[in-house]
Specification:
The protein has about 350 residues and is an all-alpha fold. Helices cover about 65% and strands about 0% of the residues.
């Protein structure tokens, strides 16, 4: 009735129509709304119109809407250029797969696959650019729009992975690595770090010790357990022959995994025992003291209390925890149940672990 301006209520209108009917019933509403609001920033009605077309499967129509938007009012909109770049890549991929399937020609994927570690939902691998003209949608156009999106809004992280994937598909891997490195140095977030790691390639991920440690410190439970194990295996192997750079950071990370998660995880106690033992062998008691100095009193009452060993069932985790207790608590009484745990019926593997890590204690 005119009591409220259209730009204040159109979201409510669209939401109510969406509940009552299929997505394609929104089209004529959004057409009129987008027309009425075409000169009002941030032109989200036009974007919503494109999303509705994508939802209903009309990708080419969505492409036309976004092309028009980026050429007119939305030429300075980062998200308009970004979504158009993604849509161009998707349309190209769909068309190439359709053509190749018809002609029975194999598709050559772009390597490395940037989304191997940080794959957003619904994103597929992009075929490498081989210079063919089979599709009217080109990676060059996708690159142009995604580059503009990143340029217009340097702070947004959403389009970076897509942009990097397009660069890789175009054979510009080094440029993608340099950009990812810049983004991570400017903002040390998990998405930026995962993008950089994935561009470095899964084969040499453990060569990037500093980056992997950054990842494990940011969120010790996000990486796959395999990454944690391989990293710690490499650290322990290095510690057996030379001083480990950043030993205090690594020890804090392992301790943080125990304190911040499930204290019954056997592998965390295993690597704590292995690394502390290596530090003792290297006469680096100072590193252990700096990490455990303020912790030992409450660790003794929490993680090494007698009832933990009396009430918990026999397991690898309990054996590794008992080894840690003897390594860290020099004043542990011989009557402490941790000794009984280690003198119990152990498997051959557990017995070997105990002997090899407590031989000097």
């Amino acid at each position: 009735n005119g009591s409220m301006a259209l730009h204040d209520i159109w979201w409510l209108l669209i939401a109510s129509v969406r509940v009552q009917g299929p997505p394609d019933s929104l089209g004529h509403y959004l057409d009129s709304i987008a027309f009425e609001l075409k000169n009002r920033k941030p032109y989200t009605a036009a974007m919503e119109r494109a999303f509705i077309e994508m939802e209903s499967g009309s990708m080419e129509t969505a492409y036309s809407i976004l092309v028009a938007l980026t050429q007119e009012q939305g030429s300075k909109l980062s998200f308009a250029h970004g979504y158009l770049g993604i849509l161009i890549a998707c349309l190209r991929e769909a068309e190439l797969r359709r053509i190749h399937r018809t002609r029975n020609i194999a598709i050559r994927p772009a390597e490395p696959r940037v989304f191997g570690l940080c794959k957003p939902s619904g994103v597929f691998d992009i075929s490498a650019d081989d210079g063919n003209k089979l599709s009217k949608y080109t990676l060059r156009d996708a690159e142009r729009h995604l580059s503009q999106a990143v340029f217009l809004d340097p702070e947004t992280e959403f389009f970076r992975g897509f942009y990097a994937q397009i660069l890789v598909a175009l054979g510009k891997l080094q440029a993608a690595k340099e950009l990812a490195n810049q983004w991570y140095k400017k903002s040390k977030t998990i998405p930026n770090l995962l993008l950089l790691l994935s561009l470095l390639g899964s084969d040499n991920i453990l060569d990037q010790d500093e980056l992997v440690l950054d990842y494990l410190e940011m969120d010790p439970f996000a990486p796959a357990l395999e990454v944690f194990r391989k990293f710690m295996d490499e650290v322990v192997a290095q510690a057996q022959g030379a001083h480990v750079v950043g030993a205090e950071r690594i020890l804090n990370m392992v301790v943080g995994r125990i304190e911040g998660g499930n204290s019954d995880e056997s592998f965390a106690w295993e690597y704590l025992a292995r690394f502390v033992y290596c530090l003792y062998k290297q006469e680096r008691q100072d590193v252990v003291d700096s990490v455990f100095g303020p912790r030992l009193p409450w660790w003794k009452d929490t993680y090494f209390s007698p009832h933990v060993f009396c009430l918990s069932p026999e397991s690898d985790a309990l054996v590794y925890r008992a080894v840690c207790a003897l390594l860290l608590l020099v004043d542990l009484s011989p009557e402490h149940p941790a000794f009984a745990t280690l003198n119990g019926e152990l498997t051959s593997e557990q017995t070997e672990f105990v002997k090899s890590h407590l031989q000097d204690v």
